[in-house]
Write a structure and sequence with these properties.
Blueprint: H1 2-24, E1 28-33, H2 38-41, H3 44-51, E2 55-60, H4 81-88, E3 95-99, H5 106-122, E4 127-131, H6 138-153, E5 157-160, H7 162-166, H8 182-200, E6 205-206, E7 214-215, E8 220-223, E9 226-227, E10 234-237, E11 246-248, E12 253-256, E13 262-271, E14 277-287
Length: about 290
């Protein structure tokens, strides 16, 4: 089995090398996590999925709390979230992903969330992405609601809904319903990678507002354009159909031979790779 491990390590190293130039162009994302994320950090393929196209700075600690003193594990305690924020200082990314807090006492969770948000914003963080917990224990329901309330107060805070994503995937979890087996690590890595990219992308918008003129019974071809979101985009018409003889392909190409002259206003919808949608209007003049 040794050669298999060596081969897997070489593949992951190759992926990291190929992605290094792209990662350098990405904003740094600091990830502060607890034992749930160790299944991702300690397995090469989930870790490669998590890091793909991102510049991640990982600080994962077993039994981490937000503040106070982390719960002991194997005779030691890891730095709390507030300790990590203080120690990183200017090395802290402008975007921070948090997968922690559920080791804190439920009665103190709301205040500790506020203290964490305040500390991150004071350190210059502009975007906080907080992963909620699968509601396998009764106390996590209220803690998830606390996070939702905090996000309503703080526009810089976005909740990444791991609860909904993982809720029915029983095979992803160990017997405690919280920590991950290998398939769960792949699932979480995929979810977090997509969620970070979606959160960091500029808003999706349709930039095509006027189409090139067409002529009756002449071949016509053009391509719609969008900005923001996460390419590739898929396209559809949400108003009445295109003028007779023209067709919109899913990749944004409009092709065909128009049959009748006239001016049309077309309502378009673009959807990016993560399901974010944008609507826009474009006009088309068909000449005789």
């Amino acid at each position: 089995m040794g050669w298999i491990s060596s081969f897997a390590a070489a593949v992951v190293a190759g992926l990291a090398l190929l992605g290094s130039s792209a990662a350098a162009e990405q904003p740094r994302v600091t990830v502060i996590g607890d034992s749930v994320l160790t299944a991702v950090e300690w397995n090469a393929t989930p870790l490669a999925i998590f890091e793909r196209g991102l510049d991640l700075q990982l600080d994962i600690g077993v039994c981490r709390t937000l503040e106070g003193v982390s719960c002991p594990f194997e005779g030691r305690t890891v730095p709390t979230l507030l300790d990590v924020v203080k120690s990183l200082g200017p090395r802290l990314g402008k975007t921070v992903l948090i997968e922690a807090g559920y080791n804190d006492p439920p009665a103190e969770f709301a205040q500790r969330v506020e203290d964490s948000v305040d500390a991150l914003l004071a350190a210059g963080v502009t975007r906080i992405l907080w992963v909620n917990m699968r509601e396998w224990q009764q106390q996590y329901i209220g803690m998830n609601q606390t996070l939702d309330a905090a996000a309503a107060r703080h526009p810089q805070l976005t909740i990444l809904d791991w609860e909904s994503t993982s809720h029915d995937h029983y095979s992803w979890f160990q017997g405690d319903g919280i920590h991950l087996v290998y398939d769960g690590a792949v699932g979480m890595a995929t979810f977090l990678n997509a969620s970070i990219k979606e959160a960091l992308a500029p808003p999706l918008s349709i930039s095509t507002t006027e189409l090139p003129d067409a002529r009756v019974d002449r071949p016509y071809a053009t391509r719609l354009a969008a900005t923001g979101g996460n390419a590739p985009y898929s396209w559809r018409v949400t108003s009445r159909p295109l003028p007779r003889g023209l067709h919109l392909l899913a990749d944004g190409r409009i092709m065909g031979e128009p049959r009748l002259a006239g001016r049309s206003e077309i309502v378009l919808q673009a959807t990016d790779r993560y399901g974010t949608r944008a609507l826009g209007r474009a006009t088309l003049l068909i000449k005789d």
